[in-house]
Write a structure and sequence with these properties.
By secondary structure, this protein is of the alpha/beta class. It is built from 8 helices and 7 strands. The longest helix is centred in the N-terminal third of the chain and has 18 residues. The protein binds S-adenosylmethionine.
Length: 279
């Protein structure tokens, strides 16, 4: 059963242990996660070129895969991650990350001006209404050094005007909306674009499936739950690895297009921003 958005709750109920187990499992191996990593690489490449011993914060670090990626990039001398869930931190520890904290993006337990770079992947859309996103971005500004960078990846709204959200994600963002939030918080925009074109087509195909009937059952229908609430990813079966590799490759082609500075894309399942705290 797909859950409908509930305006009365503070947070979506997606933080079961199973959620983080799946996150830990898929992030390294799922074609979409690999593809998104190339897109983030492409957006950050020009900034990483001049990065020297940065202090880096992964905000909403989940099972720790982004922290692995940061270690690989060798741009920092000090990586820190935090998440709202103790289950998430358990997986980070198992990946060998020990500078991690249990904390919320709404109130960062770090001193003003302490980081050169903050990365926050798919967290913004989970923050509580009405202004959790603005509070979180403002907190990021506070703990960044002047000139420091914030990269945000969140759900896009560009390709779909419907207000009905699948799973429990509270929000989707147009580039205009995300741009407004970051500039209102005091950031300067370096890059602001949609990304992940492929998933838009995938989503459109998915929508061709039978719609729920008024009593809530799907017309086709097994009525089965989503694979894991809030995390609509499953590893494809091994015999489809060839297809997964092609899909990753297509995303790498998209990433190549985004590598050029100033390049923006008008369609994509994700909304991405790289923004700077003014000097
Ligand atoms: C889709 S997962 C992404 C995890 C990680 N950024 C990644 O890309 O693998 C969303 C994460 O946001 C975390 N989260 C949700 N609300 C949060 C908050 N207020 N403060 C910190 N983390 C939060 C969840 O616990 C979860 O780990």
């Amino acid at each position: 059963m797909r859950m409908k958005r509930n305006q009365n709750v503070d947070q979506p109920q997606i933080y079961s242990e199973g959620y983080y187990r799946l996150l830990n499992e898929v992030e390294e191996r799922h074609w979409w996660c690999r593809g998104m990593r190339s897109i983030i690489d492409a957006l950050m490449e020009p900034f990483f070129k001049t990065a020297k011993e940065w202090r880096v914060l992964d905000a909403g670090c989940g099972a720790g895969y982004v922290l692995d990626w940061l270690r690989e990039k060798q741009v920092s001398r000090f990586d820190v991650g935090f998440d709202l869930s103790p289950h998430a931190l358990k997986y980070c520890k198992a990946r060998g990350h020990d500078r991690i904290a249990l904390a919320s993006m709404l109130e960062l337990p770090y001193a003003d001006k302490s980081f050169d770079f903050i990365i926050s992947i798919n967290v913004l859309q989970h923050l509580p209404l009405p202004d959790g996103d603005f509070k979180a971005v403002s907190e990021c500004l506070r703990v960044l050094k002047p000139g420091g960078l914030l990269l945000i990846q969140t759900n896009s709204k560009r390709f779909d005007n419907s207000d009905e959200l699948e799973y429990e994600d509270f929000r989707r963002y147009t580039v205009e909306k995300l741009g407004q939030i970051v500039t209102d918080a005091g950031f300067e925009i370096e890059r602001l674009t949609y990304a992940d074109r492929l998933d838009v087509y995938r989503d459109r195909l998915r929508r061709l499936r039978p719609k729920p009937t008024p009593n809530g059952a799907t017309a086709d229908s097994s009525g089965e739950d989503a694979p894991q609430k809030g995390l609509p990813l499953q590893l494809p079966p091994p015999h489809l690895n060839w297809l997964a590799n092609i899909l990753t490759l297509l995303m790498k082609v998209e990433a190549r297009g985004l590598r050029k500075s100033g390049q923006t894309q008008g369609i994509g399942h994700s909304t991405m921003a790289v923004v700077r705290r003014p000097l």
